[in-house]
């Protein structure tokens, strides 16, 4: 009997290749790896687009801060932005805020020369036509970004009377 098992063991050592069980274990490990990694990799494009929004907001913020300083601490109104194009022609921005399409390629950024009520901040600055600016975009398929659907990403720039009327910035959605 011992000879039989020794002969079987010798045959097993001489075999080349993998057993079915070994192959099934490898397939199971690969399946687990895919189950863990695919959901994490699935939203990388959305994260990259959100980073694009963040970069756009930084450019808008720099342009608005420069305008604010050069125009005696006044913010541009929505009419100045959309009609007069005060921030473009290379002086502050290469392209106007409302002409810039969000990274999803569906909406232009919405510009509002006011603060949303959700901030809880009600500044009172005399001599300034606007006390704050909201710039936002959405990653939905809505045709135009408006105050109602602009909740995904917002940048709020407001005049802070407690800090010598300097501009303060708040980001939402990141």
Structure description:
The protein has helices at residues 2-14, 20-42, 44-70, 78-84, and strands at 110-112, 132-137, 153-160, 166-172. It is of the alpha+beta class. It has one domain. Strands 1-2-3-4 form a four-stranded antiparallel β-sheet, with helices on one face. The longest helix is centred in the first third of the chain and has 27 residues, at 44-70. The N and C termini lie far apart (72 Å). It holds the Pfam family N_methyl.
In short:
The protein has 174 residues and is of the alpha+beta class. The chain contains 4 helices and 4 strands; from the N terminus they run ααααββββ.
Q: Helices and strands, in N-to-C order?
A: HHHHEEEE
Helix content: 40-55%
Order of strands side by side in the largest beta sheet? 1-2-3-4
Secondary-structure class:
alpha+beta
InterPro entries: Bac_GSPG_pilin (IPR000983), N_methyl_site (IPR012902), Pilin-like (IPR045584)
GO cellular component, one term: type II protein secretion system complex
Keywords: Membrane, Methylation, Transmembrane, Transmembrane helix
Organism: Heliomicrobium gestii
